[in-house]
Write a structure and sequence with these properties.
Number of helices: 6
Radius of gyration: 22 Å
Distance between the termini: 25 Å
CATH superfamily of the largest domain: P-loop containing nucleotide triphosphate hydrolases
Strand content: 25-35%
CATH class of the largest domain: Alpha Beta
Strand order of the largest sheet: 2-1-4-5-6-7-8-9
Number of strands: 17
Helix content: 25-40%
CATH topology of the largest domain: Rossmann fold
Structural class: alpha+beta
InterPro entries: P-loop_NTPase
Shape: elongated
Number of domains: 2
Length: 307
């Protein structure tokens, strides 16, 4: 799990040591979350497209990783117990190389934490070095690979989704497929679904998901006085249901852009209860730093970025 990170954009840097709940304030908050999410969710995959010059440094136990991207060059450094492997990729020239501790062309340096694969003839000694380095890089990928989930900046779950959509286990960034995710939980993880419903009963709301009309799954919200589709429910309830569901999906890291959108002290209490029970690190962008006071949890931090 990532413990410490630094994000730099255009020469300006922000750093954070992650707590159970880390609040991000200041300027460039969304960019901070974007760089972090896009890189960490693509370990072992192609380097994501992020505009401008940017850098990310992350540390997980004895593994450190950095990536620095500019228009003409992307440089990655992987450090494991003091041993460094450095890759360079020049997109415009099609250059893919390892430059440290050996200097050799590789088939792809445009992957987050690449593997050393080469078609060039190398000596037996070099082959042994490459095998050893690839073992270290595989260890780094395991340490840095996280299940990251991103929500925001605006959460807008739909009341109805196509019933043919099955096995949906991950929310999209705006929570639009929430009904499908809840239906999947109700079918395959009923205890998790029941936990979400129980949290809402404490607020005086009943949540149910099922076939709303032919070919459509829907979420219904019920109070003592009325019954309504999710889209007609209060904004605080729609937002809470989406974020609470995300927490119950148990990603390693949940990033929420614009957390304070529709948040209330009452709905915050429900989130805090879930956070204390789940092994999830929450990184949340907020506009009002006073929101952090609503989170009654010891392991929290507030960082201010100027990016």
């Amino acid at each position: 799990m990532v413990e410490y990170l630094e994000v730099s954009i255009g020469g300006r840097k922000a750093s954070a040591r992650l707590a159970a709940v880390t609040f991000v304030t200041g300027r460039g908050k969304s960019s901070f979350l974007e760089v972090l999410y896009k890189v960490l969710s693509n370990v072992g995959k192609k380097i994501p497209r992020i505009g401008g010059e940017w850098e990310l440094y992350v540390q997980s136990n004895d593994v450190a990783y950095s990536i620095a991207a500019s228009k003409n060059r992307i440089r990655q450094t992987v450090s494991i117990r003091g041993e460094e492997v450095v890759f360079e990729h020049m997109p415009s020239r099609g250059v893919h190389r390892v430059v440290k501790p050996i200097n050799i062309a590789v088939s792809s340096a445009d992957v987050v934490v690449p593997e050393i694969r080469t078609e060039e003839h190398v000596s037996l000694v070099a082959e042994e070095d490459i095998e050893r380095l690839n073992s270290l890089l595989a260890e780094a990928r395991r340490a840095l690979s996280v299940n990251a989930l991103f929500l925001g900046p605006y959460i807008a779950p739909r009341s109805l989704v196509d019933a043919s959509t099955t096995h949906v286990a991950k929310l999209d960034s705006h929570g639009r497929n929430l009904a499908a995710v809840l239906a999947n939980l109700a079918l395959y993880k009923p205890s998790t679904y029941d936990s979400i419903r129980a949290a809402f009963r404490k607020l005086g709301f009943s949540i149910s998901v099922g076939l709303a009309k032919p070919g459509k799954l829907g979420v219904i919200v019920t109070t003592k006085k009325r019954k309504m589709p999710l889209a007609k429910a209060p904004c605080s309830i729609r937002s809470l249901l989406t974020i609470l569901t995300a927490l119950h999906l148990e990603p390693d890291i949940l990033l929420v852009d614009n957390l304070d959108y529709c948040l209330t002290p009452e709905t915050t209490g429900v989130l805090v209860s879930a956070i204390k029970q789940k092994p999830v690190k929450l990184i949340a962008e907020i506009h009002n730093s006073d929101i952090a006071k609503w989170f009654d949890t010891v392991d929290k931090s507030i960082i201010k970025v100027e990016l």
